[in-house]
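Quick log. Single chain, no ligands specified.
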Amino acid sequence: MAKFRMERINSELQKAIADIIANKLRNPELENIIISVTDVDTAADLSYAKVLVSVLGTGNAKDIVLAILNNAKAFIRKELMHMVRLRTMPALDFRLDESYEKGQKIIKLIDTISGDNDEN
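-> predicted structure:
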């Protein structure tokens, strides 16, 4: 039962954070950058939530977005309090989700290995 509740809380926080970033966070540096909230992992006591974000942009967009989001933690948390009804709103920690890049590396390695085997 508790696991289902945590999954529901994580899902609601994920949707709300994505909405806040897309619609309420005003920063000219975030224009033309696609930011996706890929996962939220909240502690059982609701004191802390790790928010994984995926960034699609050019250059050093990932570092810029991560710095902006971590600087806007208080604003995002305040907005979350209005959108999601929880007794305790967790402190947010934004991190980059690099699973896509890791997956692409693995696919490239597999293609390289299978290409070597086809030649033999």
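The first strand starts at residue 34 and ends at 42.
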